[in-house]
Design a protein that fits this description.
5-stranded antiparallel β-sheet, 56 residues, 52% strand, mainly beta, 0% helix
């Protein structure tokens, strides 16, 4: 599975809403911020691969 690419669409407390960008679908997912890199902000680009998120 993957890799998948996302951008941070919104941050809501302990959660971030990620929008998928690699396939054009624009699907959104809710992810706990504890699973994401600390340096994320709205608009940050992320890659999900091998059960881990990394900043691009």
């Amino acid at each position: 599975m993957g890799p998948y690419e996302y951008t941070v669409a919104r941050i809501d407390g302990d959660y971030a809403i990620l929008r998928r960008t690699d396939d054009g679908s624009g699907d959104e997912i809710l992810v706990a911020r504890a699973l994401l890199p600390e340096a994320i902000d709205i608009g940050s680009a992320l890659r999900y691969e091998a059960f881990a998120y990394t900043l691009l």
